[in-house]
Amino acid sequence: MTETKWSVDESAIRDFSAANNEPEWLLNVRLDAFSKVEDLPLPKPDKTKIDKWNFTEFGAHDAKSATFSTISELPESAQAVIGEEHDEQNVYVQRNSTPAILKLSNELKEAGVIFTDFATAAKEHSDLFQKYFMQQVVKADEHKLTALHAALVNGGVFLYVPKNVEIKKPVQAVFIHDDAQAALFNHVIVAAEANSSVTYVENYISTVETEQSVVNIITEVIAGDNSQVSYGAVDTLGENTTTYVNRRGITAPNARLEWSLGMMNDGNTVSENVTNLIGDGSFADTKMVVVGRGKQSQNFTTKVVHFGKHTEGYILKHGVMKDEAKSIFNGIGKIEHGASKSNAEQESRVLMLSEKARGDANPILLIDEDDVTAGHAASVGRVDPLQLYYLMSRGISQQEAERLVIHGFLAPVVNKLPIENVKKQLTGVIERKVRQ
Amino acid sequence: MAQSTLTIKDLHVAIDGKEILKGVNLEIKGGEFHAIMGPNGTGKSTLSSAIMGHPKYEVTQGSITLDGEDVLEMEVDERARAGLFLAMQYPSEITGVTNAEFLRSAVNARREEGDEISLMKFIRQMDSNMDMLEMDQDMAQRYLNEGFSGGEKKRNEILQLMTIEPKIAILDEIDSGLDIDALKVVSKGINKMRNEEFGCLMITHYQRLLNYITPDHVHVMMQGKIVKSGGAELAERLEAEGYDWIKQELGIEDETVQ
């Protein structure tokens, strides 16, 4: 076995933790996780071999970036997703691993909403944060990448919504990667207490070409009793960035968790999106849109596990593969024993635009309870030459015809995304990815 | 006047290695309406697909030119922009692309970048064409041909014809599956196109369509060739007497392509 090369060691972790005035518990989590990294195996996403991928070698773990003072100073791609600056905005901007802008309206502050960067959350809301950080949803010792994440986490955001608070407008986070050397281990926690509701939208944006960089993202959503969490993400990380992204949530009784995920990275990506429907009567809906291009290889595992009775889980994923892009779509609906009257539905569709593009959709239903309903649909196919012929016979160029077919293929998912902002952004991102 | 001429000479076309057209000669000029008639399996639709450039049809011999330009050298979209149009017998369905979005792309494909048709103007034009074809306004926002009935698809082909205003149009069995009311509506749309510049080739095996759209020239196709040509009276005789007299006259036993 080859020795894994590490870009940081234990003393660097201690220094990093001290520099951020982290509470002792967090340093201990880091050190404990770091001691396990070497022995833990990589995750094994079905049908994608990732053991040669680079998750561990990167330039700087502790890259210091200059901050921005106003939204108008941000790169255009970031401004475009935030819009005009105004007082009622709830937005966090992070440059590489450095917190750059944080705006939270007075109204939300007064309601007890916490929205702050990772380091501040750990420092100023230590007890609350500790309750959530890699305790209930994702565990540090699940595999090598979760452990590495816990050891090296260097950015992220904490959103806490108290009981009965309903946040009307989306809360936004924008993570900008503009330092080719910087590695990002980003941690997002969205905790919604009972009867609260919130929409959170995040963007990962690369504005720099790198030779090789590493992004390791973990999101934990804790949806309390009868709460509603709508979680949107548009990932547009660069070509030579290897991304591990794990977005996972748990639901209390009658909670609703909706995911709207635009997976538009240009580099190799392993994405896990899991909802554990713990409470009776809780609900999960995952909608995912993917455009793959170039030579990237991606694996998207979407899983809903039903523990509670009367739980409902829906997965809808559509992906388009261009050039030599490869993607595996694994959809898993799992109904545990005792989760009676539950319903697990999934649909995955992949459209390949070129001879060399590859796609695979694997629908899996694992059912350990009799009194349930479940269904799945999956298709993988190449673009229909007769559709292109038809469009072109009206004078539309092949490129434009392909663009129309791609938009059309993704529209049934995009049009149903519950978050308007994400829908709009994705339409633009898809446009750009398809044109090039 | 800018009249166009589509010239087809000694056209041989094969599909999956089998020769279907065996030397078709035909010339269509702007202002002329031609009809190609003939029983099933004689190569009529193959001719229309070959002119437009259907990916499965291979031209093995002969030429097609539009105003002297070699059509066979052009991609499908270039043929369309050069002025050819094919109303298809079985139009594709395309999920997620609205009819309006598709039509606008087709219009803009003929215009320079930066000179796209204004949305208002486009909608006005589309609305008035849809009214004429007695189409529901909501069909503009439905996905292209998806879930359209047979009649709706045919009207939609004519809507495209009216919107694009090509030089030469080929209508492949535009009358099949239409009831008499729908046929009248579709014919009205086609007749509206009639002018000194617009040339049209209608492919049908029913004379019925020609009651509403009077052709200047009628051709009969058998065994992958045009075996007889005449004026509108030829279609009437075919309606009254069928095809047997032509077969006898020409000594043809089986009219289909062998």
TrEMBL record, chain A:
It comes from Domibacillus enclensis. InterPro entries: Fe-S_cluster_assembly_SufBD, SUF_FeS_clus_asmbl_SufBD_core, SUF_FeS_clus_asmbl_SufBD_sf, SUF_FeS_clus_asmbl_SufD, SufBD_N. One of its GO terms (biological process) is iron-sulfur cluster assembly. SUPFAM superfamilies: Stabilizer of iron transporter SufD. Residues 109-172 form the SUF system FeS cluster assembly SufBD N-terminal domain. Residues 176-409 form the SUF system FeS cluster assembly SufBD core domain. NCBIfam families: sufD (TIGR01981). This is Fe-S cluster assembly protein SufD. Pfam families: SUFBD_core, SufBD_N. Belongs to the iron-sulfur cluster assembly SufBD family.
UniProtKB/TrEMBL annotation, chain B:
It comes from the Bacteria. InterPro entries: AAA+_ATPase, ABC_transporter-like_ATP-bd, ABC_transporter-like_CS, FeS-cluster_ATPase_SufC, P-loop_NTPase. Keywords: ATP-binding, Nucleotide-binding. Residues 6-248 form the ABC transporter domain. It holds the Pfam family ABC_tran. GO terms for molecular function: ATP binding; ATP hydrolysis activity. Belongs to the ABC transporter superfamily. Ycf16 family. PANTHER family: ABC TRANSPORTER I FAMILY MEMBER 6, CHLOROPLASTIC. This is ABC transporter ATP-binding protein. It comes from Domibacillus enclensis. The lineage of its organism: Bacteria, Bacillati, Bacillota, Bacilli, Bacillales.
